[in-house]
Amino acid sequence: MMRHVKFIRSVVLAAISFIIFFSSPAYALHGETHKALNIYIANNKLNDFCLNTYLQDVLLFQEGVDEELIFDDIPKQVFRWIGLGGEREDDPWGKWYRKEHYLPGFGRFYRHFHNPLTDNGLWDIDIINKYGWFDSSIIWAFEPAGEQGFTGNYSWYDVETYFYNALTAENEFDRQAYFARMFRGLGQLMHLVQDLSVPEHVRDDGHVFYNYEFWLDKIGTRGNIYFAGGNIYLRNYRNLEETVQIPSDDIPFVFLDPELFETSMHQLSHIPVANLFDTNTYNGENPDDTINKSVGLSEYTNANFISPDTMSSFGTAPGTGDLPYPRVIFDNADSTSSICRFDAPDPSDGETSKYYSKIRHGEHVQYFLRAYLRNNFMDATCQYAPETCKEWWQDTIKDNRVYANYAQKLIPRAVGYSAQLMQYFFEDRIRISMTDDGFYAKTDADNPEAGFATIKLLAQNISTYEEMPEGTVDLIIKYKVSPCDPFVNQDWLSPACRTGNLPFHYICVSNTDIVSIPKAGDGQGAEMVFDLTENLPLWATDVYLTLSYKGRVVEKDAENNILYEHHAVRVGSKDISEPTPIHIINNLDKICLDTISPAGERVKDWYDAGPEAITRVDTREINKYGNDDGRGDEYDVYAHTVKDLYIRFSRMDNLLIVGMNQGEYHYHLEHIPPGELVNSLYLLTDITFGAETFWISMCNSVAVAASDPLKAEHDALWPHFTIEQLLNMGLTDEFSKRAVKNQNEPEGRYVPSYRLFRGHELWGGIRTYFPPYHPDIYRDPENPETHCPEDDLTVAATYGQGLDIRSISNDCRTAVIFENGTAMERMVEKGDRIDGLTVIDIGNRKVILEGEAGGESGMETRIILKSSESNKIMLYQP
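Predicted structure:
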């Protein structure tokens, strides 16, 4: 009989609902509450997850949740797209729904119900269940991609598809559009979870008329739920003293036990995140098990709260009936009842009202029901006519105190569980690191200006339970292009060099040979090589790598049995260094000599290799250990060519030594003439601000320069080991280096600072030296064996009459030069000549001139006049 009554009631309600929804969907709209909750979650750190941090660190959104995305000509910040999703999951009239396509019964809100005891959705009737008209919200949330229909596709798999399309988009327009749809879709999925905190949604109650959801939807500073100062406030507006703050010590957010994300416990979905909906723990007989953190939200709400049309447990034994709990029996003496009556003053008029508390069978709720009449008539009616009593009591839930108490219990789980859905979606499951090579990419030594053509990395699956055995692996490189030369010192704060407003560029490439990502426990990871479809420019800045996997995700037990399997998208990102130059300069045309004359005069300085150095070391009046034979046999003071320079890079945690065999070196430079700079090696590596991040091992031999007229004699006088001999003896040079970080950061902009050395601006340049000549080293233990100061090679003697910078125009088009000899100032621009030199460049703080030094024909020179903030100084290479 009850079954027929329920069917008739449902048909009537369906007819009424069709009429209402056909004319206006207003009675089903509660989007403002979902919107507000979603925005709160997006802007706050919950359960140790902060969306803003994730977006900045993993998805590389510089503005985090404030990043603006445009879709369908509508710009919104990320957190507002998530809020919009919460609002529009109910809405058949939204921007992307066609009003003329809307049909009664096909609104999305019909599919927002899940009864954990039956696994059915709205109106548990055979004919409805047979055709799946109003399936459980679990089925709706995890529909295959593209299957939700003309009201919009925002299932879990749709959102993952939008995510993947955004990551691999070829242009910024598509990228923003897909990200916007992804964030909106996440908001709609969060809406589905939050709906399970509404008793009507988990107890098969169509709630056409006023109910808990309507009460909660009164958003605003005078409403029942509002947001201020990063907190949620629930208020009984008839009694402001009952306003409570969430979270607080007494009312914290509630999150599902993280161990329940190991595997799905529900047959309607194979994805563990479905446990947020239902874990199949509550079976109608164990309400006390629903107050822990190991049950789905639908189970907690179903077992512990009621809705106006589902107080159907009158006279049934515990654990029986369609909705066995809470047991609503209006008799304080009945120990099988979940409730107990008490009196409380009505804040509206001060009169005493009868309330019932839920005191057993799960969650305790102080104001659980309110008596409809304030006299003893109701008690008598309930004793003799329970069915009549039920009709009288249908409206007793609709009380401010009751709904406020419900909200105090339900909102913390609604927020916590829906926040976990977003956290699970964005969990970083792929780790990117460098290979043993100590870099991700290097330039071709013969054509460095071409940039980087190949990226090599290690990838690991760092998820706890999942395997990624078969899918598509894509590498996405995100970068900007510096408007100023990044390999010289610049005023990076000047408008001409700022990159903050410059657009990002993207390179997306796949490797069809890569189909899986191994677990972290299986070793250091899989080495992956990606040949880029277009080279990453040498002037790239703000460089990030993102690796995406789209394919099978499998969880297995200890016996290697598959517990669940589905298709998913997984992501990992890495902020890497900007192109880092490896400058190598052959300084073997300069000799550091530390000499002591017979009179005890000591001079330590740099000298030109060859005749000048021979004179200094061989002449007894200058060096008391010289022999005046004119040969320089006291020390090797001849200019030398660097031969067979082998260089190998490696990670700081796995230092590798250079060798000559294939795979034991990364660069081989056959010869570097004395005084020459090699500026053709660039790396992309890891970056740790303020710390060395990669290791260099190198070895080379030397020979007297070919330009030496007495090369054969000097080679015989000072023979040197071959590269094979040096490597066999283990005579290699090792040192660590720091990578360039040149990009905008939340703390500000980090920029490289290059040091001027012999007219070249170097980033940690590598110099080749002979040890300094210290003839007295063994006789004077207090005299350390140190090189002459490098600054002596940078700031040399005054050239000609001397030049100085007085000022540089803001647009760097002109400079005022002061000539010390004539004590005159002169304005110059590019192309002008001054004292036999041509102005070839004017920068923010420097002027570069080239030409014949001192008017001596054939003496080419490059002079850099550099201005500091505190004074004007002259730096040049003679």
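Summary: The mean pLDDT is 79.
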